[in-house]
Amino acid sequence: MISKLLSSLKTWIDQRGLNGFIILAILLAVVFPLAMDSFRLNLVGKYLTYGFVAIGLVMAWGYGGVLSLGQGVFFGLGGYAMAMFLKLEASDPISTKIQSTPGIPDFMDWNQITALPIWWEPFRHLPFALLAVLVVPTLLAFIISFAMFKRRVGGVYFAIITQAVALILTVLIIGQQGYTGGVNGITDLKTMLGWDTRTNSAKYILYFVTVALLLASIYGCQWIQKSKLGTLLLAMRDKEDRVRFSGYDVAMFKVFAFCLAAFLSAIGGALFTLQVGFMSASFVGIVPSIEMVIFAAVGGRMSLVGAVYGTLLVNFGKTYFSESFPDLWLFLMAALFIGVVMAFPDGLAGLWESHIKGWLARGRAALRKPKNPDAPPSQIVQPDADVMTMQEIGSPPLARSASGSPRVPSGAGMQVSGIQGQSA
Amino acid sequence: MSNTDFVLAVEDLTVSFDGFKAIDALNLYVNQGELRVIIGPNGAGKTTLLDLICGKTRASSGSIKFKNHEMTKLAEHKIVRSGIGRKFQTPSIYENLSVFKNLEVSFPRGRGVFGALAFKCSDDVKERVQSVATEIGLEGSLDMEAGLLSHGQKQWLEIGMLLMQDPELLMLDEPIAGMSAREREVTADLLKRICKNRSMIVIEHDMAFVAQIADKVTVMHQGKILAEGSMDKVQNDPKVIDVYLGH
Ligand SMILES: Nc1ncnc2c1ncn2[C@@H]1O[C@H](COP(=O)(O)OP(=O)(O)OP(=O)(O)O)[C@@H](O)[C@H]1O
Ligand SMILES: [Mg+2]
Asked: What is the distance between the alpha carbons of residues A48 and B224, in angstroms, rounded to a whole number?
């Protein structure tokens, strides 16, 4: 009974291609919390917030073909919106009574600002702040991408524009110190609706919230990939004009992919602020934005699950190496990026698909005694040459090469040009 | 501005690329249910004309009316949605998707972003894919990756993708290029079948093929129309002979 249930569960998982998803879920939700102390777990939790950016890049870059080198903008905006709420809660008049103007954030007081700016006011309310986390970055992404893609600006030019936006926002945040906290950022965050986020138990809870939201996001993205929209994104990368002249507004699909990536990044940013307890301009600029692309590239830009592993690996590597060889890290990172892009364009996930999976399967097959060692010869039907119909001419030479699911362009596809039934 | 019964009325159409007029004050009228073939030497501007009609290239001046609606200012996807389908000169299919997916994605429902998210491959879609696949002779290859199809099959698949949209005006750019003699015959039959309740513009070089399918032939040369009429009339036109021999 139970084994029957298990096997039907297994086919359900296999059918949906959820194997990788479930392994990741077990790793993040069970193995890590059991194996790691709270310091390490908090570190993983922090990395996982970058994971949101990475899976967003899988959708925008891998699927939509929209490379953004400015995801730090959306990560940062989400993080800042959250930080503004937490900062206001931490700046109640009693705990800030030594300031010349009590009741406003400390950095404002240091910058001779004597009243809370009106655009800060609504961030006193958590629902507003949460809404801002989700809406502001997505809206900005919409404006940028709509303006660009409707004008057919794409590819490298779009990537450069996103860099420019990252640079502008960094300069703005640093320059407007009185309103944003400047280089230091917004620090000393303490509680959320009275709940102290700095305690160990709070960190555990936040870790699990992050894992749950990340897994939900991956699931949602997988659903999008399987929808017609996902198919269209793949189709656009292959033959953009064919999609356009099939009646689709190609620009809007790219806008969607970019907005989705921004939306996910913003969630990551807000969770980062909650877990780490501050937000600063150092997560917004060009360098962090490019780092985030490296996470996705290393993990595999076509694989949501892979992108999360890529994020974790690169960040563990970064933590390890930048402790031991702080000067070398940047070079190592650059080398890693170039190496991955040149040698493994599909990243770790691609390596897994092309090498390890086949190797595992072969190993398993070798263990199992083959029942009929000779594979059935592919059926070749010789059509009657006298009666010519389209079906016969069109009969596929490789009837068994079917693969229903969209495949990543690999260039390995066999070219079949022979036409059967052509003896006349 | 003329209000006509023509499906397509192209008037005074001109496009110039850096001063070079690829289409030069061209007029073209296509009737309801007509199968028009456009021929002409290389570089005559045939592909450019289709590009202009479907909005891929924007006209410098002139008008293109489809069912009496001006198309020259419309976005490409809106031109398609108003009923113009276009096949490209090189087979343009989604190589990494299955034949089924290629056809399914071309079904004219769920064309907006959120429509595409909500799109379900319901029974009517499956039925339509089946019937179109049968029409183009690919019903046995639905699960096959489209990149594995033969060249001719790819051409048919692209025609099938257009048929999914059931366009009122179907424009095909050299549909039999690279096909074997037998495939050409099959394609001629296919075109005759699918033109029943729509108008078609076909660009072709192969005269035997043209004679087989055309209602009326238009000869283009240097962005202008050189001759127009039945295949016989056009073939015996001294200007046409001159252009083709001079090439
Ligand atoms: N985007 C463009 N920019 C500049 N010149 C162009 C452009 N498109 C087409 N042309 C030129 O316009 C002329 C007509 O080209 P077109 O492709 O329409 O010819 P065609 O009749 O389709 O020829 P073929 O039979 O070889 O397909 C050619 O001289 C071509 O070089
Ligand atoms: Mg051409």
From this structure: 63
Q: Could you give the count of Cα atoms lying within 13 Å of B137 in the half-sphere of its Cβ?
A: 22
Helix (H) or strand (E) holding A73: helix A71-90
Cα B21 to averaged position of ligand 1 atoms, centre (Å) = 10
Mutation pick from B80, B132, B141, B183 vs chain A, by most beta carbons of A within 10 Å, is B141
**CB neighbours of residue A17 within 10 Å:** 12
Residue range A325-369, pLDDT digits in tens: 878 887 888 888 888 878 888 888 888 887 777 777 777 777 665
For residues A202 and B244, the model is more confident at A202
Closest CA to B160 of B206, B241, B101, B219: B101
Residue B48 near ligand 1, beta carbon < 6 Å: yes
Q: How far apart are CA B50 and CA B56, in angstroms?
A: 8
Q: Are B176 and B37 in contact (CB under 8 A)?
A: no
Task: Report how far apart, in Å, the C-alpha atoms of A70 and of each of A51, A137, A177, A396, B161 are.
Answer: 15, 12, 22, 46, 37
Query: Among A287-291, A375-379, B106-110, B199-203, which is the least confidently predicted range?
Result: A375-379
Q: How many CB atoms lie within 10 A of CB A321?
A: 15
User: How many helices (DSSP H) and strands (DSSP E) are in chain B?
Assistant: 10, 10
As given in the structure block, the two tokens for residue A306 are 């892979």
Q: What is the ipTM of this complex?
A: 0.93
C-alpha A123/C-alpha B202 separation (Å) is: 62
* Residue A221 falls in which region: left (phi positive, over 0), alpha (psi -120 to 50) or beta: alpha
Residue A163 confidence (pLDDT): 95
Q: How far is the CA of B29 from the centre of ligand 1 (A)?
A: 21
Lowest average pLDDT, out of A318-332, B65-79, B96-110, goes to: A318-332
Domain ranges of chain A: 40-350
- The full set of domain ranges for chain B reads 1-83+204-247
Instruction: Grade residue B19 by pLDDT with cuts at 50, 70 and 90.
Output: confident
Beta bridge partners of residue B47, listed in sequence order: none
Instruction: Classify B32 as helix, strand or coil.
Output: coil
Strand arrangement of the beta sheet that strand B199-203 belongs to: B84-87, B169-173, B199-203, B35-39, B216-221, B224-229
Q: Is the CB of B83 under 6 A from ligand 1?
A: no
Residue nearest to atom 12 of ligand 1 (CA): B22
Residues 6+ apart with CB under 8 A from B60: B14, B15, B16
Give the distance, in angstroms, between the CA of residue B208 and the centroid of all CA atoms in the same chain: 19
CATH number assigned to the domain with residue range B1-83+204-247, chosen from the 4 options 3.40.50.300, 3.40.50.450, 3.90.1150.10, 3.40.50.1110 = 3.40.50.300
Q: Rounded distance, CA A165 to CA A78, Å? A: 15
- Which two tokens mark A175? 């320059």
Report, as ranges of residue numbers, the positions in chain A whose pLDDT lies below 50: 370, 372-424
> pLDDT value at position B177?
87
> Nearest-CA neighbor of B149 among B126, B172, B183, B124?
B183
